[in-house]
Specification:
This protein is mostly beta strands. It contains no helices and 8 strands. The strands form 2 sheets. A 4-stranded antiparallel beta sheet has the order 1-8-3-6, with no helix packed on it. The protein is 0% helix and 44% strand. It has one domain (11-94): Sandwich (Jelly Rolls), CATH 2.60.120.770.
Length: 95
């Protein structure tokens, strides 16, 4: 059975990811769902609770690579990202 989410209170934001580690989501004890989508023209790498490093962690491919955090994969601490040249957009939906 698919897990249902209440998106009425969801927040949609965008973060500019830099060439150095960039916090894309702050720690949030009430987080129930998050989706991070790379809207940029180059790969991004994300890490959980520590600085993001190029070519390590979870790779989000350019132009649409994404990760969803929910249910058994729920993570409530900070999430960081990095990309090679900086100035790339990440779209975030969080509930």
């Amino acid at each position: 059975m698919a897990q249902e989410h209440d998106f009425a209170s969801a927040e949609s934001t965008a973060v500019t990811v830099g060439a150095t580690t960039t916090e894309v989501l702050a720690a949030k004890s009430g987080r129930r769902y998050a989706q991070l989508t790379n809207d940029g023209a180059e790969e991004m790498y994300i890490s959980f609770g520590v600085d993001a490093v190029m070519n390590k962690g979870i790779r989000l491919n350019r132009r649409g690579g994404s990760v969803t955090i929910s249910g058994t994969k729920l993570y409530r601490n900070s999430i960081n990202a990095i990309c090679a040249s900086g100035g790339q957009n990440m779209c975030i939906l969080e509930a």
